[in-house]
Amino acid sequence: MKNVKVKLNQNSYEIVFASFNSENFEERFLKLSENRAVLTVGDKKIQQLYPLMAYRYGKFFALAGGEDNKNLSEIERLCEYGISENLDRKSLFVAIGGGITGDMTGFTAAIFMRGVEFIQVPTTLLAMVDSSVGGKTGVNSASGKNLIGAFKQPKLVLIDVNFLKTLPEREIKNGLAEVIKYAFALDEKFFELLSGNVDKINSLDLNFYNKIIHRSCEIKADIVAQDEKETKNVRALLNYGHTFGHALENLSNYEISHGEGVAIGMNIAGKLSQLLNLWSESDYLKQLKLIKDLNLRYAIPRNIKIDDITEVMTHDKKASRGKINFVLPTAIGSSEVFSNIDMEIVKKALEESYE
Ligand SMILES: NC(=O)c1ccc[n+]([C@@H]2O[C@H](COP(=O)([O-])OP(=O)(O)OC[C@H]3O[C@@H](n4cnc5c(N)ncnc54)[C@H](O)[C@@H]3O)[C@@H](O)[C@H]2O)c1
Ligand SMILES: [Zn+2]
Fold this sequence. Notes:
Blueprint: E1 4-6, E2 13-17, H1 23-33, E3 38-43, H2 44-49, H3 51-54, E4 59-63, H4 72-84, E5 92-97, H5 99-111, E6 117-122, H6 125-131, E7 136-141, E8 144-151, E9 156-159, H7 169-186, H8 188-195, H9 198-202, H10 206-226, H11 242-251, H12 258-275, H13 281-293, H14 306-314, E10 326-331, E11 334-338, H15 343-351
Parallel strand pairs: 2-9, 3-4, 3-5, 5-6, 6-9
Antiparallel strand pairs: 1-2, 7-8, 10-11
Helix pairs in contact: 6-7, 6-10, 7-8, 7-10, 7-12, 11-12, 11-14, 12-13, 12-15
The structure holds nicotinamide-adenine-dinucleotide and zinc ion (ZN).
Nicotinamide-adenine-dinucleotide is lined by residues 43, 45-46, 49, 65, 67, 70, 97-101, 103, 123-124, 126-127, 130-131, 134, 136, 145-146, 163, 166-167, 171, 174.
């Protein structure tokens, strides 16, 4: 599998598809880590499941793990540990884990000694296809998710699909929601590939996963290269399904997971596009079929009220001054950002998307 290049001028880096134990990775790693201290960071679960990997390059720091611990005091604990271990400006951090580990290690790398280099070894599907690409790092604040952070690109990302063998099914589904997001919003051919291979996806065929992770990385890398810091509307397309999704996650007290929220959110956005005649009913149904075939959630639970959803969306950090930006599909594989959508039609789309 060819490497994916993330082209960002002096911040460019490669996503390498290889086994953690391969010579290919070992060689690259040795080159990068020559004459410098290395600190591997992961959460407790990674430490338990993959002790050999955790300690392979020396010291390991165990993050507490979970969204509740994705905060500044945990970052402080990591920084203090690094200082006590005499890490300096030349040190290298290695993040092995899911999106939380990657976001936190990346953020620490951005601020530790005013900035050190880091590499990412994503071990969840979501981290492989989404959070390890693009350089957004950070932690949650008491008032919301990911409100404190920095853009910090890794020096290298290594994707070893074998990590998925131990990943719980619910986490696989979380990642799959992001995979199909790329297809619906940006790539019709990718949609065809996914729709034609539902069995391989549902049976966790790792060869096929390697292929779809690779394509997802290419798509995200391409978007990020056009809009590294989300100053244009291009990167916003990656938020397809997310405005509705975030509101649902939040209103369910996170009983609805991120991927579940995004999957339901894409279905609502698809319905909204249909009501606005931006795309056809048959496109809407094609999208819904793939969501259902992958056994993802697609409907809003009855206990969440429409008015609460619109209220939360208006206060989302991505809403600019109360105005909600909607990423809506205009065909399978194409989408655009719309900012002047009539809230009555939004409510109708919500009404038609309940369980
Ligand atoms: N930076 C970005 O652009 C970006 C994009 C999307 C999401 N995110 C962030 O990513 C986070 C979610 O990431 P996540 O879903 O990977 O969560 P996570 O890091 O909490 O991982 C999910 C769970 O899987 C476990 N795990 C990890 N790898 C495993 C493996 N191979 N086998 C068994 N268990 C394993 C973890 O210990 C954890 O319990 C959120 O905080 C979100 O804000 C960031
Ligand atoms: Zn997401």
